Amino acid sequence: MRRRDALATVGTLALAGCLGLESPDQNGDDETESNESDLEIDAEEETEKLGGGDHENELELDRAWATAFDVEYGGRLVDETIYVAGAVDGDEGIVAVDPSGGEIEWTCDLGDVPYGFYLSAGPELVYVGSAQQDRIRAIDRRSGTIEATAEYGTAGGDSAIHDGTLVTGTRHAGENDVLVGLDGGTLEERWRRSAELAGFSGAVVADGVVVASYRNGELTGHDPADGSELWATEFSIAGHGYGPFVDDAGRVFAVDSERRAIARIDPTSGEQSWTIGFETQTGELPTIGPPAFDGDAGWIVAGRRVIAFDSVAGDRRWSIEIDGEVTSPVAKTGGTRWVHAVGSDSGRLYGFGSTDGELRYAGEGPADDSDHELFAVENRLAALENGTLVGYDVRSLE
């Protein structure tokens, strides 16, 4: 493990392709039944449409630092560290970057760069799995040292951690899929559930219950101590980007790909307390970005739309349709929420007021139509493009 200084570079504002948004799984949803919930889906309200024309910005982005990688396949922000699947000076694996100044804190050499990687964090370790590798690794968050490795199958989504147990699953096909509970320190197997549940898509923990999703159309609740199933409900999940998600208060959400709705899920029963529907331009399933939360407010991307909602009551606060496909999840700095979108001729970066949806910033971004990632810590925005992670200070012009 080696500490390296950030590489200072100069360039234009940009974002990079990685794992923030996920298009629907084209192979896993054909036979999925819809959730027959009796809840009435909140009807669409008037949505503001936003074009790509000139705009007088209220904010300015000042380039603060840049860190270059030989190769990068996306990143994840956990607490105040950005973990990039990338390569630096021949070491290929996970690179930890401090977003305050772009310094590389450590590089964990895995032998190759994990493509389609999943990352979950405990107090002292991060757990990394990959859609192309049959193993999960526990990595020390301070040093980047690999503490344990388990080989059990191809990862299908993010893991859940509760009381020293890591709950995760595999995405193969049919009877090969498993849901497992591993010791959070050694990754030794504590329990295993063989799945009729095909295509594990991710898990979160809330109220002492692990909520897991599957591409064959189910959400399930499990006791993390032994894996016993507490409840199961039909729910169409098109892929990892559709949930489940959990906010800081322990509220659980997921996006039903058949009903085109985000729902709040009771983790103890699987019941839905509310749903908010959204329309799509073509009728096809939209890409979904993991939501951002702040108190009782949430923001989520659905295709061309950014939707703000009350995460407690399920009320829609505002909805904006962008002239172009949104290619990043929502990032938040102060009172601004950020996304990247690609239209017919160029890419743009948009910043909206968190409470009113008013446009505060619109600027040029990369013109390609791949997925992008934005990271935000306090009043700094970071973005990936073509192997470089760039940090920007967000400054008010008022």
Distance between the termini: 45 Å
Query: Can you tell me the CATH architecture?
Result: 7 Propeller
Mean of pLDDT: 82
Poorly predicted regions are: 1-38
Structural class: mainly beta
Sheet having the most strands: 5 strands, mixed
% residues in beta strands: over 45%
CATH class: Mainly Beta
Shape: globular
**Helicity, in percent?**
under 10%
Walk across the major sheet and give the strand order.
Answer: 1-26-25-24-23
Please tally the β strands and state the result: 34
Q: Overview of this structure, please?
A:
The protein has 398 residues and is mainly beta. The chain has one domain: 7 Propeller (Methylamine Dehydrogenase, Chain H). 0% of the residues lie in helices and 51% in strands. It is built from no helices and 34 strands. A 5-stranded mixed beta sheet has the order 1-26-25-24-23, with no helix packed on it. Strands 27, 28, 29, 30 and 31 form a 5-stranded antiparallel beta sheet that branches. A hairpin with a 2-residue loop joins strand 11 and strand 12. The chain starts with 47 loop residues before the first strand and ends with a strand.
Describe the secondary-structure layout.
Blueprint: E1 48-50, E2 59-68, E3 71-78, E4 81-88, E5 91-98, E6 103-109, E7 117-121, E8 125-130, E9 133-140, E10 146-150, E11 160-162, E12 165-169, E13 178-183, E14 189-194, E15 200-206, E16 209-214, E17 218-222, E18 229-234, E19 245-246, E20 252-256, E21 261-265, E22 272-277, E23 288-294, E24 297-302, E25 305-310, E26 316-322, E27 325-326, E28 331-333, E29 336-342, E30 347-353, E31 359-365, E32 374-377, E33 380-385, E34 388-396
Parallel strand pairs: 1-26
Antiparallel strand pairs: 2-34, 3-4, 4-5, 5-6, 7-8, 8-9, 9-10, 11-12, 12-13, 13-14, 15-16, 16-17, 17-18, 19-20, 20-21, 21-22, 23-24, 24-25, 25-26, 27-29, 28-29, 29-30, 30-31, 32-33, 33-34
